[in-house]
Input
Amino acid sequence: MSGSSTIAVRTGLERDTQHGAVVPPLHLSSNYTFEGLGQPRTYDYTRSGNPTRGILAETLAGLEGGERAVVTASGMAAINTVLQLLEPGDRLVMPHDGYGGTWRLVDALCRRGQFEVDWVNLTDNEQCRAALSRPARMVWVETPSNPLLRITDIAAVRALAPDALLVVDNTFLSPALQQPFSFGADIVVHSTTKYLNGHSDVVGGAVIAKEKPLGDTLGWWANCLGLTGAPFDAWLTLRGVRTLKARLKQHLENTKALVELLAQHPSVSQVYYPGLSTHPGHATARRQQQGFGAMISFELHDEEGAVARFVDQLQHFSLAESLGGVESLIAHPASMTHAAMSTEARNVAGISDQLLRLSVGIEDADDLVADLGAALDLVKPRVSQGGPA
Ligand SMILES: Cc1ncc(COP(=O)(O)O)c(C=O)c1O
Output
């Protein structure tokens, strides 16, 4: 990741030449005067371009190491922008276990004939190799995946599909922990709603292109379809980005403590976390990431009512969708974040009704461990069902 001083400069320091404001000004204006007939200034209309949103775009492009970023109204708007690059007959290779909203959009557009799609387990070498032996216009990677935290080797996918547009959804790690361009990605997608903003008060997204011409095409579509983000959201997200590295440090420290608890607790039948040496993607994550992330998924033993009792007991983990904010959350993917997927697609992806997902916040680690431990103790299985994974 670029150093924190780079973040400071890119996020607004020394930007305000008029007053020297340390925080970049917020330009809410929807439109801008022309200097004269046929003489537009840099900005004319905020859907097409806005100074505050422009600073965020430059910041995100810089952090990811791309040439151009487009800031969108949501992560889904970012994904929708990227899918505009596909035409009828184009083949899209999608991971079988990504975010439920991405599944819903791709499935709906495919049914309308906008492109063809193959859902593939890209973390399975044989399946990946077979799927990429046929030409694909675009390959989509979400690593770590939502919610099972499977790890896809980006460089391996690039090598198997050298001619495809390689898109990586980097939402779960942010550029602070993973830079997909250095492994051959062409496009990086973010829900900035998550770690980049980090305070659960913005829904936003971004698409970053490695090369400017591709970024310009994506910018054209975002403007054409009206998918660009609001200036105030950009301003808040810039505030979030300034503390990204510091927040992640605490997120990771807290996550480590919680994983240790979950991995040895008798109420837990399975833990999914790439930092565990038993995780199938551990070696790849170690190579590809600068940290294992602050999302943990796990399954409780299949006891009647255990999931509901467990969730009710928690005091420091709010039952809510989304992730990446400073506060700890718990979600039940099957009925919440991944309810948009068909039951069959959920089963193929391995998302069971016993699965729970934690977004670990930056609260005091001792409070989180005590809270999770008490809830786990409450749902200890009556008969021994074997130890945790
Ligand atoms: C990995 C991933 N990508 C994209 C999205 C969509 O982002 P948004 O909710 O900002 O539209 C989400 C939302 O949870 C996500 O988890």
Summary: The mean pLDDT is 94. The first helix runs from residue 4 to 10. The chain is about 35% helix and 15% strand. The pocket of pyridoxal-5'-phosphate is lined by residues 74-76, 99, 101-102, 142, 146, 169, 171-172, 191, 193, 203, 205, 322 (CB under 6 Å).
